[in-house]
Design goal:
The structure holds two protein chains of two kinds. Chain A is mainly alpha-helical. Chain A contains nine helices and no strands. Chain A has a domain of 94 residues. Helices cover 56% and strands 0% of the residues of chain A. Chain B contains five helices and seven strands. In chain B, strands 1-6-5-4-3-7-2 form a seven-stranded antiparallel β-sheet. The interface between A and B is large, with 38 and 44 residues.
């Protein structure tokens, strides 16, 4: 069974990214790839789950050999770019864990993750916030209020010009 | 994630690299490329038949390491800032408008020039070839024909060194760039 994550496998991705420019440029180049965008939306929609990502990363890391370049280095970088704007906790965990590594075997993915984390924290987001109200606040009596719609600019009276008109006519 | 790799600690290698003014340059010596990476770079070279290969795909250094670290190490982190530090500390200057380009000058490929941001690549001017020579009209450079810079550079940390026309570079599809020439000549 194939998943969107398979689009990031090194043998497929290397055709789109035949050379590896500096990390900041590479991150942007990866963001332009259709495969990276597909995985991003699959994670956001839940088509790709946390367990699938963990399994995929584990399978890529199974090729890790000390002192040898990791063939899936670009894949891990592309996954970092895919998860950059995902708010799930495992996305944050992936980016942080990858960014804090210091390994010669995967030089590009680590640096791309660092760039992604930086961009992630600079990005303005809508976040769900939870507030805990005290028992006193819950028992406080409330009364309904009427909310009137604000008139649109076309029907709203131009108070400034009316004011000026009044002043002008009064001066005369 | 990456629990096993975290246990390895720091496996990167670097050397002491400083600018002429003594500024520290963060660097890393990269590992040799994988067979897959070598194949990718050979496939890319086929798309640029005018590329002249000087050296097959190799690790160890990148474009900046080729130009400023004598092929001993690569410069990756804070790329823009570190390159600007080197240019300033090592006494490079921007080539003036209309000033003649010479062999040994540098070509810097930027995405944005004002302010300078996102440096793609750097290479050294290796040759100045006349358009007439390139078209096979004559063997030597003619003073009346335009001279086109040919750059010796290393496209990335795992590619070889190539001699190429200044515009025959690849970063990613539709990448827009501007070339800036710098020199250490007084």
């Amino acid at each position: 069974m194939t998943t969107p994550l398979d689009l990031l496998k090194p043998e497929i991705l290397s055709e789109s990214v035949p050379i590896l420019p500096p990390p900041a440029i590479l991150r942007r180049a990866l963001h332009r790839l259709a495969s990276v965008r597909t995985v991003h939306w699959a994670v956001r929609r839940g088509t790709v789950s946390e367990s699938m990502v963990r399994e995929f990363v584990a399978s890529m890391m199974s090729e890790f050999r000390r002192g040898e370049q990791l063939p899936a280095d670009i894949t891990l970088g592309a996954l970092a770019a895919s998860l950059e704007a995902c708010r799930q906790e495992f996305a944050e965990e992936y980016l942080c864990d990858l960014a804090r590594l210091r390994l010669a075997e995967m030089p590009m993915s680590i640096r791309v993750a660092q760039e992604c984390l930086q961009a992630r924290y600079e990005r303005p987001i809508n976040d769900v916030r939870w507030f805990q109200y005290s028992a006193i606040a819950d028992s406080r009596p409330t009364r309904p209020i009427v909310v009137r719609p604000i008139p649109s600019p076309s029907v709203r009276p131009n108070r400034v010009s009316n004011h000026k008109y009044t002043l002008a006519s009064g001066a005369k | 994630m990456f629990e096993a790799q975290r246990l390895l600690g720091d496996t990167t290698r670097s050397i002491v690299l400083q600018t002429r003014a003594g500024g520290k340059i963060v660097n890393e010596i990269t590992l040799p490329p994988t067979p897959g990476q070598i194949k990718d770079r050979e496939n890319l070279a086929k798309k640029f038949p005018a590329w002249e290969n000087r050296k097959p795909p190799t690790g160890g250094y990148n474009c900046a390491g080729h130009v400023w670290a004598a092929r001993r190490t690569g410069i990756f982190d804070d790329f823009d800032d570190q390159v600007m530090t080197i240019l300033k500390d090592d006494g490079y200057r921007l080539l003036a408008v209309g000033e003649e380009l010479k062999r040994g000058d540098l070509a810097l490929y930027w995405e944005f020039l004002s302010p300078r941001k996102n440096l793609y690549h750097v290479g050294m001017i290796f040759d100045l070839r006349s358009t007439r020579e390139l078209l096979g009209l004559e063997s030597a450079a003619s003073p009346r024909s335009a001279l086109i810079p040919w750059v010796l550079s290393k496209p990335d940390a795992f590619s070889g060194e190539i001699l190429h026309h200044e515009r025959h570079v690849y970063f990613y599809p539709d990448a827009k760039y501007s070339i800036e020439y710098w020199t250490d000549r007084p």
